Each structure stands twice: as structure tokens, then as C-alpha cells.
Amino acid sequence: MAPPTSPAAVAAAARAAPTPAAALALFKSALSADQALCPLAVLPHLAASPSLPYTLLTASAAARPHATSLRLYARLKSLSVPIPVASLHPLLSSLPSAPAFALFADIYRLRLPLCTTTFNIMLRHLCATGKPVRALELLRQMSHPNAVTYNTVIAGFCARGRVQAALEVMREMRERGGIAPDKYTYATVISGWCKIGRVEDAAKVFEEMLTQGEVKPTAVMYNALIGAYCDRGKLDVALQYREDMVDRGVAMTVATYNLLVHAFFMAGRASDAHAVLEEMEKNGLSADVFTYNILINGYCKEGNDKKALEVFEGMSRKGVCATAVTYTSMIYALSRKGHVQVTDRLFSEAVRKGIRPDVVMYNALINSHCTGGDMDRAFEIMAEMEKKRITPDDVTYNTLMRGLCLLGRLDEARGLIDKMTMKGIQPDLVSYNTLISGYSMKGDVKDALRVRDEMMNKGFNPTLMTYNALIQGLCKNGQGDDAENLMKEMVEKGITPDDSTYISLIEGLTTEDERMAAADAANA
Predict the structure, then answer these.
(1) Structurally, how many domains does the chain consist of?
(2) What is the DSSP letter of 425?
(3) Which residues form the PPR repeats (predicted)?
(4) Is 158 among the domain residues?
């Protein structure tokens, strides 16, 4: 049966509702069914029912823009009827922080009785605006804080990377509040340490929790630790936590499997990644968009764009919607193989599906055209993104610079460094190495060395890539002795030559004896 839509009919139906909960459900249904129905128009018909106006306010907070609900609140206030603070909680909670602070100040001015829930909502707003210290001050003024109160402030400090301060609040929670930390408390602190790279501290908190035995470990805790150790490259430790997780009867989630699949791919262990994926499916868990993105990235890393495309096409068949990350990965992978038309098609398809391209996705498309040698189109794409108020970043300029260098258009590439500087984007190591490589490929070592000196004056130290480019340029010019001296310099600076270094030297040496000696050095 369709809900009533006229203000009078809605009011009559609400008055006839058997319980306040039924009246609230009716208001929500009516407001959702008819967007033209204004809560302020319903209000005059509720004069004979003192409690219903506040039920209407609760429904309005869920189904109408904030401005409408605030006008309804102002009208209710003008009626000089006592306002139950609980009826304001949905509105206070759903408002953006600034108007929420204003509403709270008004509630406080009216001397309405505040409860723990009211304070908890305001603590969340304070923490959301980066003010955990203010939130802690408010917490200490509360007469009846609960676990939610402390967990909100703890989460606020962790979100700002201040996990040690969060631990102090956790200690205060137990000692001053007499409230035992729960699974949310521990999960927040453990995740907080992991996010700032202090995984050993996270592990210590986890072990202390297990020793005390008050709180059982959860998948959220294990996932934080597994993810942090995977990021550190300590896959063996991550797998130990996975084993412990299973031994303690904590069910692995899709997120757990995703972390492990990603870690195996990054470690070059594709077969292990597939084994984990098969285990996940065997346990009845379905791959989500993150799983597919990890698989696509993994195959792209291997250079297996055919397999990546198969996974991409399989997503839609499984009803999983691709994201901007998915399309970006595919565009980058296909651009490396020169499939410019396919990357254009994928970009257009993403836009058609309602995905708003970000700077990373635009950079992927620009890279495709740079790799294909169509610099005019690459610059057109940058102009298009600027029209859409998406600001090009250092990756955008570095990509364009690389494309120009590949075509030997070094003066234009050099001009891009000046242009990005004027726009407030500082050239980075990639910018300078790209330009050095471009000059070296052309045999213009003098300019390459000048850029190297400029880079060092900016505080950047030469890398293996810098030296390899310069050595390649010197060898190309027949300056084998200078190239050897440069290699000695890089070794003195603690940079180990790689195969590319030795190949350039061997190719640049002029006599067969020199080449054989260099080959012996490379094999030593």
C-alpha cells in the first residue's frame, strides 16, 4: 500500500500509528515517496500530538537536505515546546561538522539536557575536523563516558598519526573510566601503528592483548598486521600471522586474501598468488573489485597484458563494476604494448560508465600517446584535463618530457621543466633523469652533465639511472675513458653498477682487448 502524500493525510496516518516507531517509519516512507512533500507543511497538522513533531524531525534528518531539517528545527523551537534532545541526534549526527557545532551551541544555550550520545556525536565531529585534543578535553568533562566515547577519541588520535597519545587515552579508559578496552579499541590502535609504519609496536599491542586474554583477536587486527608486514616485504612474518589466524579460528576475509595475493604478485610468486585465490574461492568467498584490481596489476607487472585483459573482461561477467583504478591499470598496461586505440576506447568507456577520470587516469592516457609518439594528442589531453579543473602534476610533466625526449625534441622537454616550475610544481629526480637520458641518447653529453649539475644544486643526488644514462652517452661519443672514470665515481658513492652499466661500457670500448677485459670485470 502506497504511503499518503498530502500533508494532512500524512499527519493523520502518523497520529493513527500504534507506536512511535511505526509513526517514524511512516514519516520516512512518505518523505521518500514524494520529494515534493515538505516536512514544514506537515507540521501544522500535528499540533494535537506533542511527540510527533520531533518524530517528524528525525525522519526529515534521514530523508531531506540539512537546510530543510534545520528550518524545521527552528520552527519547532519557536513553538516553545520542550525539545527532546534525542530527537536532535539524527540531525546532529548527519550534519557536516561546522553546522553541527552551531546546532550543538544552540542546544547548549537552550540548556537542553545533554546525554552521553550527544557528547559522543560531538566528539566524532571534533575528531573528524582534526581536533582530537579538544575532543579529549570534552571527554574529561563528561560525567558518564562509555566505550564508544573513548574509542571515538582514540580513533581521532590514530587518524592524525598520534598513536602514542591514543595509547594514553586507552590507559585512561581503563584507569579513570573503569572501562575495559574492547576489540574496537585494540583494532584501532593496532591499525594506527601499522599505518605509520611502526608494525613492531602494533605487534607488541597485539601480543599484550592476547596475554591479558580479555579480548579475542579479530580479522581486522590480523589484516592490519598482515598488510603491514607485506608492505615491509616480510612476507614470511605475514604468513605466520595468517597461520595463527587460522589456528585461533578467526575466519579469513576477502581483505585477508587480497593482501596475500597482492604480496605474492609483488614478490614475483604468481603461482602462490593463484593458490591463495583458489583457496579463497574454495572457502566460499567471492572476489571483489579490489581482488580484480590486484590481479590486473599483478599481470600487468608481469607484462602479461593478455591475461590482464581476460581478468578485466571477466569482471563484468561476474557483476563486479570496474573502478578508475581498474581502467588506469589497463590503460598503462596496454600503452606499453603500443595499443593506443584500445587505451582511448577504454578511457571513453570509463567516462561513459560514469567514472570521473582523475589525474592518475589522465596521466595513463597521456603516457599511451607519448609512447605512441603522438605528442600533439598528448598535449591536447593535458589541455582537456585542465579545462575540467584537474591540475596536472609532476607525473604529467615527466611523462610529456619522456615522450619529447624519445622523439629528440630536447629543447621542448627542457622547456617543460621551466613551465612546471612556474606553475609551482617542483621538478623531481625523475624529471632530471629523464632529461639527462634524453640528452645522452642524442649524444649531447655536455648538456646532460649540465643538467646533472643543476640537479645536484637542487639537492638531488645522482642515482644508478643518472650514471647509466651519462655512461651510455659518453660511450656513444667514444669517450670510453671518461665513462670508466664515471663508473669509478659511482662505485665510490656506494652505487653498484648493473648489467646496463657494463653493457654500455663494453659497447663503448674501442679495442677487442678492452672489451674482453670489461666483460671479465662484468662476470667477476
Answers:
(1) 3
(2) P
(3) 146-180, 182-216, 218-252, 253-287, 288-322, 323-357, 358-392, 393-427, 428-462, 463-497
(4) yes
